[in-house]
Amino acid sequence: MSAEAEDLSEDEATALELVREQGQIYQSEFWKALDVSSRKGSRIAKKLADKGLVEREDAVHDGNTTYLIKPVIKDENLDFSLLMAGDMLSPFVGEEEVDARGDAFSQWIMNLVYEDPVIPEDEAADTPPEEEGTGAPPET
């Protein structure tokens, strides 16, 4: 569990998950989706904002003054490596229509297939080395 999640009550964690899933939500809809009172929903949203996990912007929704709640996305939480195959960026990035049978996509997939696997250090230490010259795992 992250340090961020450890500091949250169950209601706050559920609320943060809701905001992140929705991308943004009006506070007038937020408390209804959480099935809490408007007062409790307001307190939860304020606590999340105070912790820097969401932003609350003044807004008007259905003719009423409310807040628009948006998740705060920190750069350290983004993993752009998932878009990469070697030094090639995914052909899906920025394209509205992608040809799954096209050369760019095929080349990107082949780069993924032939990349060296990344083995976490703790798992690598547990893996027995292959016997020299045979290419086969040692027999037990």
UniProtKB/TrEMBL annotation:
Residues 119-133 have a biased composition (Acidic residues). It holds the Pfam family MarR. One of its GO terms (molecular function) is DNA-binding transcription factor activity. It comes from the Archaea. Residues 8-62 form the HTH marR-type domain. InterPro entries: HTH_MarR-typ, WH-like_DNA-bd_sf, WH_DNA-bd_sf. Residues 119-140 are annotated as: Disordered. This is Transcription factor. It comes from Halarchaeum salinum.
